[in-house]
Amino acid sequence: MNKPVDNQAVFFTGRHYLVLSMLLCFLVGLIGRAFYLQIVENEFLVDQGVQRQIRTIQTPAYRGAILDRFGSPLAISTPVDSVWVNPSEILQNLGALKTVTKKLGLNYSRTVSNLKEKANKEFVYLKRQLKPEVAESVASGVEGVYLQREYNRYYPAGEVVSHLVGFTDIDDQGQEGLELVYQSWLEAQPGSRRVIRNRKGAVIEELAQVKRSHSGKDIYTSIDMRLQYIAYRSLARAIQYHGAKSGSAVLLDSRNGEVLAMVNLPSYNSNQRKKMTASQQRNRALTDVFEPGSAMKPFTLAAAIDRGKYNQKSLVDTSPGWFMVSGHPVKDIRNYGKLDLASILRKSSNVGASRIALSMKPEELWQSLTDYGFGEPSGVSFPAESSGYFRHHSQWQPLDHASMGFGYGLSVTITQLAKAYAVIANQGRELEISLLKKQVDDSQKNQIARHVMKSSTAKMIIEMMEEVVGPKGTAAQAAVTGYRVAGKTGTAKKSIAGGYDEDDYISVFAGLAPASDPRLVMAVMIDEPSQNGYYGGTVAAPVFREVMSNALRILDIAPDDLSTLQARLSPKGKGA
Amino acid sequence: MTQKYWFALLLAFVLGSALTVIYVKHESRVLFSELRTVQKQQDQAVIQWSRLQLQNSTLATHSNVEAQARKTLKMRLPETVQLVELP
């Protein structure tokens, strides 16, 4: 049995070596090939592999939102996708380009010629800022067409708060307002990662984070949208009713200097800025200056009382109702005779205020008014903010000195005026105005703030200003039922080149409430009212009343004048 | 002789670790794809959230609320006569 096997083995020996040598040849071939791939062509092949598999992709990051003090959005970013192509890639795949342009509603031939022009570039936008689903349906599965995540800025409150918030451009850079001021805080920095993709383009592994993405931080402004809206609505109504050119109003919390509302008209919708004009775009409350007129008188009086020149009982002789300063008359509308300080404010006597101003040295008056914030930046950081126009006392002419007393010869922004009234409301203490929500402990900081006016003086001025809003005053229309209100009107002629315009006025009202313990300060300015009156008391004071009465109610501030409420209660009995 | 045992042991370790590498790599890819799915969901959620926020603020515009309150619900401010002061 064994022999045949041996014979067979012998028989097959030749073949055995043949097969073996063939296998050896294959092996050598394989080793050669492996050597070629791994050593000779290694670099090229790795490179190709990386090109096919490894991608750097963007990690999205969003711009911070701008919120009101309770967190409702004033400016918010929503994701959108922009479609981009690499021209040299897509131009080899014109069929795909045709469908893509059709889906995007672009002109095919124009797109092609445009891309040919930019053939040396690697990144060309086809269309920007599409809804994510739309963009996805256009670009998915098409080679050479890519998406980039971007964010579109949306302003839910629109024109009510557009001046304050401002806007961004298409590249998410702040251009105006708070968007510009706090650009670096809000700004988002998209990151990038290196990833491996499989044949289908899905990411299967992350290799490294090249750059961390940083989303922007949110900003809580001090604005209360409820009050902002009411202020906007009231101002808009008044401007329309009086046929005025423009107007601004500022509402401050007099305890910590937060701006609760700041409105301007005309306004624009920040979501649709194509028709926007420069005149609509200005945040007039901070950029536009005007001569405050009589609204300045409380400060003249405060400066004089602070220096002990006058007290509540002093009388100022204003007869015969006018006097001359370097050839120019200072006039009242009639001869008021001898007036005490409260009556000077109530009747708004120019002669009285002027005499009081002249009783101080120019440097004294200048120092006090500067302390109250006139001629100084208001302290909010805002692009193109004006510090007003208030000359140094060394440059004053006698007429400047006299007219300063009743608010001519200097100009202010409505925010500066509101801030100065807030000094009175804050018991004479300096106040830091802020467009951002303050921390709670800031109110304690306020307790140690510098007194720029004695608290006794501030109290006296408030009492006098209450009479202005009283039934005999110039601003009875500013009264709010249930609350004691103090304020002062101003009706100033507009200064034009070489003098004053006799027909164009600025109507101002600034005031505070509740007078017993002031919480809110508001200043209203309406430019060139042309119908239904032009006095500050008839044009600006009603806006003050409407906004203030709502604000006091909304902020739950207790009435401090129950007598007026009682008077209303009595006719219907006490059954309530 | 001991050397041989050592060799066998190390060989077993090497093979074991090689297999573990394969397994862990696979596991990491599975987990990574899960992570991607979750990230995509998060992205979608963010998109939806910002859209809802917008929708909310559009519907809750103060002018809109005021109009609804006054016209549809016939609401008005209480007169002072109806106010009661609590001690």
Describe this structure as you would to a colleague.
The complex is a heterodimer of chains A (576) and B (87). Chain A is of the alpha+beta class and 576 residues long. Chain A has three domains: 2-40; 56-220, Penicillin-binding protein 2a (Domain 2), CATH 3.90.1310; 225-273 and 287-570, 3-Layer(aba) Sandwich (Beta-lactamase). Helices cover 39% and strands 21% of the residues of chain A. Chain A has 23 helices and 17 strands. In chain A, the strands form five sheets. In chain A, strands 2, 3, 4, 5 and 8 form a five-stranded mixed sheet that branches. Chain A has a five-stranded antiparallel sheet with strand order 10-9-17-16-15, sandwiched between helices. A three-stranded antiparallel sheet of chain A has the order 1-6-7. In chain A, a hairpin with a 5-residue loop joins strand 9 (246-253) and strand 10. In chain A, helix 13 (297-306) packs across helix 16 (362-371), helix 13 (297-306) runs antiparallel to helix 20 and helix 14 packs across helix 20 (455-469). With 87 residues, chain B is mainly α. Chain B has one domain (2-70). Helices cover 79% and strands 0% of the residues of chain B. Chain B has helices at residues 2-59, 62-72. Chain B is rod-shaped, with a radius of gyration of 34 Å. The model of chain B has no long low-confidence stretch (mean pLDDT 86). Chain A binds chain B through residues 60, 62, 72-73, 76-79, 132, 154, 156-157, 160, 202-206, 225-226, 229-230, 233, 481-482, 553, 562, 565, 568-569, 572, 576, and chain B through 28-29, 32-33, 36, 43, 46-47, 50-51, 53-54, 57-58, 60-63, 77, 79-85.
Q: What is the correct CATH architecture of the largest domain in chain A?
A: 3-Layer(aba) Sandwich
**What do we call the CATH homologous superfamily of the largest domain in chain A?**
DD-peptidase/beta-lactamase superfamily
Helix content percent band of chain A: 25-40%
N-to-C order of helices and strands of chain B: HH
Rg of chain A, nearest Å: 37 Å
CATH class of the largest domain in chain A: Alpha Beta
How many angstroms separate the termini of chain A?
A: 129 Å
Number of strands of chain A: 17
